[in-house]
Amino acid sequence: MLQLVDFVVRNRFFLVFILLEVLSVWLIVRSNTYWGATYFNTSNYYVAKTLAFSNSAREYTKLDEVNSALANENARLRATVTALSQNKPADSPSGYVPDSSFASRFTFTVAKVVDNETNKTNNVLTIDKGTSDGIKPGMGVISATGVVGKVRFCSDNYSVVTSILHSQFMVSSKLVRSKEIGYAKWPGKDPNFVDMIDVSKYTKIFKGDSAVTSDQNSVFPPGIMVGRVETVTVHPNQTFYNIVLKLATDFRNLSYVYVVQNHQLGEQDSLKIRTINTK
């Protein structure tokens, strides 16, 4: 308290000057219409700027919650779109009626990427969902823009995913315009590009054509983006194109992914095993 009194005594002339200045400004504003309007407009401008900055800061701190909510909504919408597309496939004959359980066999679980690799020959990523969330090895993983990979190992709360940027990972893909089916496989170089192999050179391929997951796939729903045709080359002594796809998924900026569960995968696999055992 004594220090405060001492500060006021030592700076009394300056404090009186400030007080008189404030009083003078107040009197000018109160008694002059022009200066009153100027003060009102200026103060409103700076108050609005301060409020805008405050709102921006508040919104920024809630971005993680907003992104999580959007990811959950995207998962719900993606499941709906997948079911609708399977109820009436665009290329199916007029008499084809799919089984209702077949059309709704895919569901999606949102997960956050907590670790990611892009600079190795065999890259993996880690997500924050595991067996306690119903995640199992073999499930497909996609992003909002395209294919990501397949679950390899799971613990209670985490899962390791083999990404498409892995030398041993391949996904059955179809070119939208030419309807040709091949396999997308990473050559181990640029994380933005993969090769599409086993596409016959006797079919016309269009640069810029979309490559999506094919119907011959039990892990991913059909129609999920893989990439777009970047280059197409062919050698005279080969029967297949050399096609390079620009990946739809930006692996360097992955934040949220969707784990795909095919509820009929066990049934499909058990039939395959029976076929193998009877040979």
Question: Could you give a quick summary of the protein structure above?
Answer:
Helix 2 packs across helix 3. The longest helix is centred in the N-terminal third of the chain and has 29 residues, at 33-61.
Describe the structure in your own words.
- This protein has 279 residues and is α+β, with helices and mostly antiparallel strands.
- Helices cover 36% and strands 28% of the residues.
- The protein is built from six helices and twelve strands.
- It has helices at 2-10, 12-31, 33-61, 63-87, 100-103, 265-277, and strands at residues 106-116, 122-127, 140-142, 147-154, 159-166, 170-175, 181-185, 193-197, 210-213, 225-233, 242-247, 256-262.
- The strands form two sheets. It has a six-stranded antiparallel β-barrel with strand order 1-2-5-4-3-12.
- A hairpin with a 7-residue loop joins strand 7 (181-185) and strand 8 (193-197).
- Helix 2 crosses helix 3 (33-61).
- The N and C termini lie far apart (97 Å).
- The model has no long low-confidence stretch (mean pLDDT 80).
SSE string, helices as H and strands as E: HHHHHEEEEEEEEEEEEH
Query: What is the first-to-last residue Cα distance?
Result: 97 Å
By DSSP, the count of extended strands is: 12
Low-confidence stretches: none
**Helical proportion?**
25-40%
- SS content category: alpha+beta
Biggest beta sheet summary: 6 strands, antiparallel, barrel
Order of strands across the biggest sheet?
1-2-5-4-3-12
Count of runs of 4 or more consecutive helical residues? 6
Give the radius of gyration: 31 Å
Strand share of the residues? 25-35%
Which overall shape is indicated by the principal axes computed on the Cα atoms?
A: elongated
Mean pLDDT: 80
